[in-house]
Design a protein that fits this description.
This protein is an alpha+beta fold. It has 3 helices and 7 strands; from the N terminus they run αβαβββββαβ. The protein is elongated. Keywords: Cell inner membrane, Cell membrane, Electron transport, Flavoprotein, FMN, Membrane, Phosphoprotein, Translocase, Transmembrane, Transmembrane helix, Transport.
Length: 216
């Protein structure tokens, strides 16, 4: 009788343990899926702000490739999202990293239209000083919005710098390093896209992300 009671207690405890582990696993999976979905939607909203409205019908987050171009994009491996209308290329969106921000790396989102002009630039993450370098956020100032429509010919390449360095782009009062670094990163992104030509725009089998090598 005593042995039976012990076995029954062990069975009950084991059942509780299995149920608890299962609940934790299911909850973890559900939360993870929700986080991924929220991140996907947030990225889609961000992309929508730097792409021509109504001129695409694919999901750029699914139509993407990996590129290796650290000299231009500031990171060893970077994602490139392709935007298209039917079979026609509309834009590519890249995620260059500014390695030399004032307070650390700055991650950007840069949209380059098929004609070589900028659809827009946004800051994904940074550690810049509040009240100074954080003016790169569109919620703090409109500075980053002024990239839209620019290209390597407008302004000319030699003018792709801040005004303090003889260029065409504004700097912030008391903070030149941050805008200088971002202007240079956006310029390098445009140079990379021009160098690659249609290699970045053509469709590929997205079941296996392709890798495009950059030339220095």
């Amino acid at each position: 009788m005593k042995t039976r009671s012990i076995l029954l207690a062990g069975f009950v405890l084991g059942a509780f343990a299995i149920t608890g582990v299962t609940l934790v696993a299911v909850t973890h999976l559900t939360v993870d899926e929700r986080i991924v979905d929220n991140q996907h939607q947030a990225m889609q909203r961000k992309l929508a702000t730097i792409l021509p409205a109504g001129q695409s019908d694919n999901d750029p987050l699914a139509d993407r490739i990996q590129v290796h171009a650290p000299d231009f994009l500031g990171i060893d491996t970077s994602q490139v999202y392709r935007v298209r209308k039917g079979d026609e290329p509309v834009a590519v969106v890249l995620e260059p990293v500014v390695p030399d921000g004032y307070a650390g790396p700055i991650k950007l989102l840069v949209s380059v239209l098929h004609d070589g002009t900028l659809g827009g630039v946004r800051v994904l993450s940074h550690h810049e000083t509040p009240g100074l370098g954080d003016k790169i956020e569109e919620s703090k100032s409109d500075w980053v919005l002024h990239f839209q429509g620019k290209s390597l010919t407008d302004p000319p390449l030699e003018k792709w710098s801040v005004k303090r360095d003889g260029g065409e782009f504004d700097q912030f009062t008391g903070a030149t390093i941050t805008p200088r670094s971002i202007v240079n990163a956006v310029k390098n992104t445009l140079i990379y896209v021009r160098q690659q030509g249609d290699r970045l725009f053509v469709p590929v089998d997205t079941s296996t992300p392709a890798t495009v090598q950059g030339k220095s």
